[in-house]
Design goal:
Elements lengths: L9 H4 L14 H46 L36 E3 L2 E5 L23 E4 L6 E6 L5 E8 L5 H6 L3 E8 L4 E5 L8 E8 L3 E9 L11 E12 L2
Antiparallel strand pairs: 1-10, 2-4, 3-10, 4-9, 5-8, 5-10, 6-7, 6-9
């Protein structure tokens, strides 16, 4: 970058003082010298302005060049989706190229997808309310595990002919209003697919109605449910320290 020009003395830019009277005119030599000084001052002003404009233009060109170098040397953006994107509230699955050709959740009509099997064992011991009760179409049966539910898992095997586009959950033990209030309710569930992509569903802890999450159409044979978080029990009784799901549906596009 060229050095900034030193500031010229103020008197270089000072205008000539007006004559005191029209009747008083400088002699010819004086007038000639005045004309010479005027031309010199104009020339100096032109030089100063030219130097200033040149300096600014040089700075802009250098800044542009540096910016271009930074842009070329830095990491370039890529269109490949990240395999680790997830959300703690209802959102989108991770961007897996094999499963997610688009990141737009499906918003068309749906129907329940056929679930062939549901398996899982409670971490705190066997429970009489097994995962199979989630797919028996009986509203009076539930899946239930004692304790906080954190890291409890159930694996579902889906019919292979249709993609899954959403999930619908009835959170808590709704088979009895008193049990619903006394037990824990789940706040977050992770749904993981065959290719390693997953979505985290946030749930209300005080809603007896089905809570639905939509995501882009995903081809998968299995879905693994993992409980991530739950409320505290509504009652201090030890038998109420448990999590439950009363109903579950996987959704596929309606035909």
């Amino acid at each position: 970058m060229a050095p900034m020009p030193r500031r010229l003395p103020d008197d270089v830019f000072r205008e000539a003082a007006p004559a005191e009277s029209d009747d008083i005119r400088p002699s010819a030599p004086t007038a000639a010298r005045a004309g010479t000084r005027t031309r010199l001052r104009a020339r100096e002003r032109g030089v100063a302005r030219g130097m200033f404009v040149g300096t600014v233009a040089g700075a802009l060109l250098i800044g542009f060049g540096v910016g271009r170098l930074i842009g070329l040397d830095g990491d370039q953006p890529t269109l490949e989706p990240s395999p680790s994107v997830s959300t703690s509230t209802p959102g989108l699955p991770t961007a897996s190229p094999s499963a997610l050709p688009t990141l737009v959740p499906y918003d068309g009509p749906t129907r329940p997808l056929t679930v062939l099997d549901a398996t899982g064992t409670c971490l705190s011991g066997a429970s009489g309310d097994e995962p199979a009760y989630l797919i028996d179409a009986n509203p009076m049966t539930i899946w239930r595990c004692p304790g906080s539910g954190t890291e409890e898992q159930v694996q579902f095997v889906l019919a292979a002919d249709q993609p899954v586009v959403g999930v619908r959950v009835v959170n808590g033990n709704t088979s009895d209003v008193d049990d619903y209030a006394a037990e824990r309710r789940i706040l977050r569930i992770r749904w993981a697919f065959d290719d390693g992509s997953f979505v985290v569903q946030g749930l209300s802890g005080n809603d007896l109605q089905p809570q639905e999450l939509r995501f882009p159409p995903t081809e998968t044979r299995t879905v693994t449910m993992t409980v991530l978080e739950s409320t505290v029990p509504g009652s201090g009784e030890s038998e109420n320290d448990a999590v439950s799901i009363s109903a579950l549906d996987f959704l596929t596009p309606a035909q």
